[in-house]
Amino acid sequence: MKKKLQQTIAKFLFLKHDKWLSSVNSLKTYFDNLKNEPTQNSNKIKQDKRREKHLFLAKKHSCKKVQFQNTYQEWCSTDVHTFTPDSIEEENQKHLVIFWGGGTSTEGMLSEVYGFAKETKLTIHAFNYPFVNSSEGEIYTHNDLVTCSKAVLNSLPIHMDKTILYGDCYGAAVAESTYQSLVAENKKPAGRILSNSFSHFSSAADYLIFANIRMALFNDPTTRISLFVTALIYALFSPILLIIHLLIFCFLPYLDWNPSPIKTATHQSKSLWVTNRCNDTVLNSAALNRKVIQSDDWKSKNSLLSVTTLKARAKRFSNQPHFADLADIETNEEGKNMYNLCEHFAMQCTR
Q: Minimal CA–CA distance to 194: which of 345, 83, 79, 325?
Protein backbone atom coordinates (compact mmCIF):
# COMPACT_ATOMS: atom_id res chain seq x y z
CA MET A 1 0.00 0.00 0.00
CA LYS A 2 2.76 2.44 0.94
CA LYS A 3 4.64 1.72 -2.27
CA LYS A 4 1.51 2.34 -4.35
CA LEU A 5 0.82 5.67 -2.61
CA GLN A 6 4.45 6.73 -3.11
CA GLN A 7 4.21 5.88 -6.79
CA THR A 8 0.94 7.84 -7.11
CA ILE A 9 2.55 10.99 -5.70
CA ALA A 10 5.58 10.56 -7.96
CA LYS A 11 3.38 10.20 -11.05
CA PHE A 12 1.24 13.17 -10.03
CA LEU A 13 4.36 15.33 -9.77
CA PHE A 14 6.48 14.12 -12.67
CA LEU A 15 4.66 11.93 -15.20
CA LYS A 16 5.10 13.57 -18.62
CA HIS A 17 5.35 12.50 -22.24
CA ASP A 18 6.00 15.18 -24.85
CA LYS A 19 3.82 14.34 -27.84
CA TRP A 20 6.15 15.87 -30.42
CA LEU A 21 8.76 13.21 -29.55
CA SER A 22 6.56 10.33 -30.69
CA SER A 23 7.65 10.74 -34.31
CA VAL A 24 11.38 10.95 -33.55
CA ASN A 25 11.69 8.46 -30.65
CA SER A 26 14.20 10.46 -28.60
CA LEU A 27 15.86 13.86 -28.32
CA LYS A 28 19.18 12.35 -29.43
CA THR A 29 17.57 10.97 -32.60
CA TYR A 30 15.90 14.31 -33.28
CA PHE A 31 19.18 16.23 -32.92
CA ASP A 32 21.07 13.67 -35.03
CA ASN A 33 18.49 14.00 -37.79
CA LEU A 34 18.75 17.79 -37.68
CA LYS A 35 22.53 17.69 -38.00
CA ASN A 36 22.30 15.30 -40.93
CA GLU A 37 19.65 17.16 -42.91
CA PRO A 38 20.65 17.85 -46.55
CA THR A 39 22.27 21.22 -47.31
CA GLN A 40 19.34 22.25 -49.50
CA ASN A 41 17.12 22.27 -46.38
CA SER A 42 19.30 24.85 -44.58
CA ASN A 43 17.21 27.80 -45.83
CA LYS A 44 14.04 26.06 -44.67
CA ILE A 45 15.54 25.65 -41.20
CA LYS A 46 16.52 29.34 -41.08
CA GLN A 47 12.95 30.29 -41.89
CA ASP A 48 11.72 28.22 -38.95
CA LYS A 49 13.07 30.01 -35.86
CA ARG A 50 12.28 27.12 -33.55
CA ARG A 51 14.15 24.60 -35.70
CA GLU A 52 17.01 27.04 -36.14
CA LYS A 53 17.40 27.22 -32.36
CA HIS A 54 17.22 23.44 -32.15
CA LEU A 55 19.94 23.11 -34.80
CA PHE A 56 22.10 25.46 -32.72
CA LEU A 57 21.66 23.08 -29.77
CA ALA A 58 22.14 19.97 -31.91
CA LYS A 59 25.62 21.11 -32.95
CA LYS A 60 26.64 21.38 -29.28
CA HIS A 61 24.86 18.23 -28.11
CA SER A 62 26.11 14.93 -26.75
CA CYS A 63 24.19 12.28 -24.83
CA LYS A 64 24.84 9.38 -22.49
CA LYS A 65 22.64 6.93 -20.58
CA VAL A 66 23.00 6.67 -16.80
CA GLN A 67 21.61 3.91 -14.58
CA PHE A 68 20.75 3.86 -10.87
CA GLN A 69 18.68 1.87 -8.37
CA ASN A 70 15.62 3.31 -6.63
CA THR A 71 14.41 2.85 -3.04
CA TYR A 72 13.15 -0.67 -3.82
CA GLN A 73 16.38 -1.67 -5.60
CA GLU A 74 14.75 -1.53 -9.03
CA TRP A 75 16.96 -0.41 -11.91
CA CYS A 76 16.19 2.87 -13.63
CA SER A 77 17.91 4.88 -16.36
CA THR A 78 17.93 8.38 -17.78
CA ASP A 79 19.55 10.16 -20.71
CA VAL A 80 21.91 12.99 -19.79
CA HIS A 81 22.12 15.71 -22.42
CA THR A 82 25.22 17.92 -22.53
CA PHE A 83 25.59 21.14 -24.51
CA THR A 84 29.20 22.28 -24.78
CA PRO A 85 30.19 25.87 -25.68
CA ASP A 86 32.60 26.52 -28.53
CA SER A 87 36.26 27.46 -28.10
CA ILE A 88 36.60 26.72 -24.38
CA GLU A 89 39.22 24.20 -23.31
CA GLU A 90 37.91 21.36 -21.16
CA GLU A 91 39.97 22.31 -18.09
CA ASN A 92 38.49 25.84 -18.18
CA GLN A 93 34.85 24.81 -18.54
CA LYS A 94 32.28 25.81 -15.92
CA HIS A 95 29.29 23.52 -15.63
CA LEU A 96 25.60 24.09 -14.89
CA VAL A 97 23.38 21.08 -14.17
CA ILE A 98 19.64 21.68 -14.57
CA PHE A 99 17.10 20.08 -12.22
CA TRP A 100 13.62 20.40 -13.76
CA GLY A 101 10.47 20.79 -11.69
CA GLY A 102 7.34 18.67 -11.83
CA GLY A 103 5.58 18.41 -15.16
CA THR A 104 8.58 19.64 -17.14
CA SER A 105 11.27 17.95 -19.19
CA THR A 106 14.44 18.66 -21.14
CA GLU A 107 12.53 18.12 -24.39
CA GLY A 108 9.73 20.43 -23.31
CA MET A 109 12.11 23.13 -22.07
CA LEU A 110 14.48 23.41 -25.03
CA SER A 111 13.83 27.16 -25.13
CA GLU A 112 15.32 27.36 -21.63
CA VAL A 113 18.28 25.18 -22.59
CA TYR A 114 18.79 27.35 -25.68
CA GLY A 115 18.82 30.47 -23.49
CA PHE A 116 21.57 29.05 -21.30
CA ALA A 117 23.58 27.79 -24.28
CA LYS A 118 23.19 31.00 -26.29
CA GLU A 119 23.59 33.59 -23.51
CA THR A 120 26.38 31.98 -21.47
CA LYS A 121 29.69 30.17 -21.88
CA LEU A 122 28.69 27.47 -19.41
CA THR A 123 28.57 23.78 -20.27
CA ILE A 124 24.92 22.81 -19.74
CA HIS A 125 23.79 19.38 -18.54
CA ALA A 126 20.10 18.41 -18.41
CA PHE A 127 18.29 15.17 -17.64
CA ASN A 128 14.82 13.81 -16.88
CA TYR A 129 13.61 11.75 -13.94
CA PRO A 130 11.91 8.37 -14.48
CA PHE A 131 8.27 8.73 -15.65
CA VAL A 132 9.43 11.45 -18.08
CA ASN A 133 9.78 10.71 -21.83
CA SER A 134 12.53 8.18 -22.61
CA SER A 135 13.68 7.69 -19.01
CA GLU A 136 13.12 4.15 -17.76
CA GLY A 137 12.03 2.74 -14.42
CA GLU A 138 10.04 4.24 -11.57
CA ILE A 139 10.57 6.58 -8.65
CA TYR A 140 8.81 6.35 -5.30
CA THR A 141 10.38 8.92 -2.98
CA HIS A 142 12.12 12.27 -2.95
CA ASN A 143 15.33 10.40 -2.20
CA ASP A 144 14.98 8.49 -5.49
CA LEU A 145 15.25 11.84 -7.27
CA VAL A 146 18.41 12.59 -5.29
CA THR A 147 19.84 9.16 -6.13
CA CYS A 148 19.10 9.77 -9.81
CA SER A 149 20.71 13.23 -9.68
CA LYS A 150 23.86 11.97 -7.94
CA ALA A 151 24.22 9.16 -10.48
CA VAL A 152 24.05 11.79 -13.24
CA LEU A 153 26.62 14.06 -11.57
CA ASN A 154 28.98 11.19 -10.81
CA SER A 155 28.81 10.04 -14.42
CA LEU A 156 29.92 13.38 -15.86
CA PRO A 157 33.60 14.24 -16.52
CA ILE A 158 33.39 17.35 -14.35
CA HIS A 159 35.06 18.86 -11.30
CA MET A 160 32.54 19.59 -8.55
CA ASP A 161 34.29 22.82 -7.63
CA LYS A 162 33.52 24.08 -11.15
CA THR A 163 29.90 22.94 -11.13
CA ILE A 164 26.68 24.81 -10.28
CA LEU A 165 23.33 23.13 -9.60
CA TYR A 166 20.32 25.01 -10.98
CA GLY A 167 16.87 23.89 -9.83
CA ASP A 168 13.40 25.17 -10.71
CA CYS A 169 10.33 24.67 -8.47
CA TYR A 170 10.42 21.08 -7.11
CA GLY A 171 13.71 20.65 -8.97
CA ALA A 172 15.24 23.24 -6.64
CA ALA A 173 14.36 21.03 -3.66
CA VAL A 174 16.06 18.12 -5.42
CA ALA A 175 19.09 20.29 -6.20
CA GLU A 176 19.39 21.36 -2.55
CA SER A 177 19.07 17.79 -1.26
CA THR A 178 21.62 16.60 -3.83
CA TYR A 179 24.00 19.40 -2.88
CA GLN A 180 23.81 18.53 0.84
CA SER A 181 24.27 14.82 0.13
CA LEU A 182 27.38 15.52 -1.96
CA VAL A 183 28.74 17.85 0.75
CA ALA A 184 28.41 14.97 3.23
CA GLU A 185 30.49 12.83 0.84
CA ASN A 186 33.19 15.53 0.49
CA LYS A 187 32.15 16.17 -3.13
CA LYS A 188 30.86 19.70 -2.62
CA PRO A 189 29.67 21.48 -5.79
CA ALA A 190 30.64 25.15 -6.15
CA GLY A 191 27.10 26.37 -5.51
CA ARG A 192 23.39 26.11 -6.24
CA ILE A 193 20.67 28.37 -7.60
CA LEU A 194 17.23 27.63 -6.13
CA SER A 195 14.72 29.28 -8.43
CA ASN A 196 10.96 29.48 -8.12
CA SER A 197 10.81 27.08 -5.18
CA PHE A 198 9.16 26.50 -1.80
CA SER A 199 10.38 26.43 1.80
CA HIS A 200 8.47 23.25 2.77
CA PHE A 201 6.78 20.95 0.30
CA SER A 202 3.88 20.31 2.69
CA SER A 203 3.17 24.07 2.67
CA ALA A 204 3.27 24.30 -1.12
CA ALA A 205 1.59 21.02 -2.03
CA ASP A 206 -2.00 22.23 -1.73
CA TYR A 207 -1.21 25.26 -3.92
CA LEU A 208 0.42 22.98 -6.48
CA ILE A 209 -2.61 20.69 -6.43
CA PHE A 210 -4.86 23.68 -7.13
CA ALA A 211 -2.63 24.65 -10.06
CA ASN A 212 -2.82 21.13 -11.50
CA ILE A 213 -6.60 20.95 -11.10
CA ARG A 214 -7.02 24.38 -12.74
CA MET A 215 -4.75 23.16 -15.53
CA ALA A 216 -6.95 20.09 -16.05
CA LEU A 217 -10.17 22.12 -16.01
CA PHE A 218 -9.14 25.20 -17.93
CA ASN A 219 -5.74 24.40 -19.48
CA ASP A 220 -4.62 27.77 -18.08
CA PRO A 221 -3.65 28.03 -14.36
CA THR A 222 -3.56 31.84 -14.29
CA THR A 223 -3.85 34.45 -11.57
CA ARG A 224 -6.54 36.23 -13.57
CA ILE A 225 -9.12 33.51 -12.87
CA SER A 226 -7.61 31.90 -9.77
CA LEU A 227 -10.19 33.23 -7.27
CA PHE A 228 -13.09 32.13 -9.43
CA VAL A 229 -11.49 28.78 -10.17
CA THR A 230 -10.62 28.15 -6.53
CA ALA A 231 -14.23 28.84 -5.50
CA LEU A 232 -15.52 26.56 -8.23
CA ILE A 233 -13.11 23.77 -7.27
CA TYR A 234 -14.18 23.93 -3.63
CA ALA A 235 -17.85 23.92 -4.64
CA LEU A 236 -17.45 20.88 -6.88
CA PHE A 237 -14.76 18.89 -5.12
CA SER A 238 -14.67 20.03 -1.48
CA PRO A 239 -14.97 16.53 0.08
CA ILE A 240 -12.23 15.23 -2.19
CA LEU A 241 -10.05 18.26 -1.47
CA LEU A 242 -10.51 17.79 2.26
CA ILE A 243 -9.21 14.23 1.96
CA ILE A 244 -6.32 15.39 -0.23
CA HIS A 245 -5.36 18.06 2.29
CA LEU A 246 -5.41 15.52 5.12
CA LEU A 247 -3.19 13.22 3.07
CA ILE A 248 -0.80 16.09 2.30
CA PHE A 249 -0.30 17.22 5.86
CA CYS A 250 -0.49 13.85 7.61
CA PHE A 251 1.09 11.35 5.26
CA LEU A 252 3.70 13.15 3.13
CA PRO A 253 6.49 12.59 5.71
CA TYR A 254 5.46 8.94 6.10
CA LEU A 255 5.59 8.52 2.31
CA ASP A 256 9.02 10.21 2.11
CA TRP A 257 7.74 13.17 0.10
CA ASN A 258 8.37 16.14 2.36
CA PRO A 259 11.56 18.01 1.40
CA SER A 260 12.20 21.30 3.18
CA PRO A 261 14.95 23.33 1.44
CA ILE A 262 14.78 26.01 4.14
CA LYS A 263 16.37 23.59 6.64
CA THR A 264 19.73 24.00 4.89
CA ALA A 265 19.23 26.88 2.42
CA THR A 266 18.91 29.43 5.21
CA HIS A 267 20.57 32.58 3.81
CA GLN A 268 21.91 34.07 0.60
CA SER A 269 25.64 33.37 0.39
CA LYS A 270 28.55 32.90 -1.97
CA SER A 271 27.34 29.36 -2.72
CA LEU A 272 23.57 29.98 -2.65
CA TRP A 273 21.21 32.20 -4.63
CA VAL A 274 17.49 31.93 -3.89
CA THR A 275 15.09 33.70 -6.22
CA ASN A 276 11.29 33.69 -6.61
CA ARG A 277 8.72 35.62 -8.65
CA CYS A 278 6.35 38.42 -7.66
CA ASN A 279 2.63 37.59 -7.57
CA ASP A 280 3.22 33.83 -7.72
CA THR A 281 -0.13 32.38 -6.65
CA VAL A 282 1.04 28.81 -7.17
CA LEU A 283 3.46 28.98 -4.23
CA ASN A 284 1.96 31.98 -2.39
CA SER A 285 3.34 32.23 1.16
CA ALA A 286 5.29 28.97 0.71
CA ALA A 287 7.85 30.71 -1.56
CA LEU A 288 11.39 30.00 -0.35
CA ASN A 289 12.67 33.59 -0.62
CA ARG A 290 10.18 34.66 2.08
CA LYS A 291 12.06 32.58 4.67
CA VAL A 292 15.66 33.00 3.53
CA ILE A 293 17.87 35.53 5.34
CA GLN A 294 18.82 38.20 2.82
CA SER A 295 22.21 39.90 2.38
CA ASP A 296 23.39 43.20 0.91
CA ASP A 297 24.64 41.95 -2.44
CA TRP A 298 23.12 41.47 -5.88
CA LYS A 299 21.57 38.09 -4.97
CA SER A 300 19.17 39.65 -2.48
CA LYS A 301 18.37 42.47 -4.92
CA ASN A 302 17.31 39.71 -7.31
CA SER A 303 15.53 37.42 -4.84
CA LEU A 304 12.05 38.54 -5.92
CA LEU A 305 11.60 39.32 -9.60
CA SER A 306 8.78 40.32 -11.93
CA VAL A 307 7.63 38.97 -15.26
CA THR A 308 8.11 41.37 -18.16
CA THR A 309 5.06 43.24 -19.42
CA LEU A 310 6.47 43.70 -22.93
CA LYS A 311 3.97 42.52 -25.53
CA ALA A 312 6.79 41.11 -27.62
CA ARG A 313 7.57 38.69 -24.78
CA ALA A 314 3.98 37.87 -23.91
CA LYS A 315 3.67 34.13 -23.30
CA ARG A 316 0.79 31.80 -22.65
CA PHE A 317 1.44 31.71 -18.92
CA SER A 318 3.08 35.13 -18.51
CA ASN A 319 0.21 36.30 -16.28
CA GLN A 320 1.09 33.45 -13.92
CA PRO A 321 4.71 34.17 -12.97
CA HIS A 322 5.36 30.65 -11.72
CA PHE A 323 5.12 29.27 -15.26
CA ALA A 324 7.02 32.03 -17.07
CA ASP A 325 10.23 31.30 -18.97
CA LEU A 326 13.50 32.67 -17.63
CA ALA A 327 13.58 34.92 -20.70
CA ASP A 328 10.37 36.54 -19.41
CA ILE A 329 11.87 37.51 -16.04
CA GLU A 330 13.11 41.06 -15.49
CA THR A 331 16.24 41.33 -13.32
CA ASN A 332 17.37 44.26 -11.18
CA GLU A 333 20.79 44.31 -12.84
CA GLU A 334 20.95 46.69 -15.78
CA GLY A 335 21.71 44.99 -19.09
CA LYS A 336 21.61 41.47 -17.61
CA ASN A 337 18.96 38.81 -18.03
CA MET A 338 18.46 35.71 -15.86
CA TYR A 339 20.86 33.64 -17.96
CA ASN A 340 23.57 36.30 -17.51
CA LEU A 341 23.01 36.36 -13.75
CA CYS A 342 23.25 32.57 -13.52
CA GLU A 343 26.57 32.75 -15.36
CA HIS A 344 27.71 35.61 -13.09
CA PHE A 345 26.88 33.49 -10.03
CA ALA A 346 28.76 30.53 -11.50
CA MET A 347 31.85 32.62 -12.18
CA GLN A 348 31.84 34.00 -8.64
CA CYS A 349 31.48 30.52 -7.12
CA THR A 350 34.15 28.87 -9.25
CA ARG A 351 37.00 31.38 -8.95
A: 345
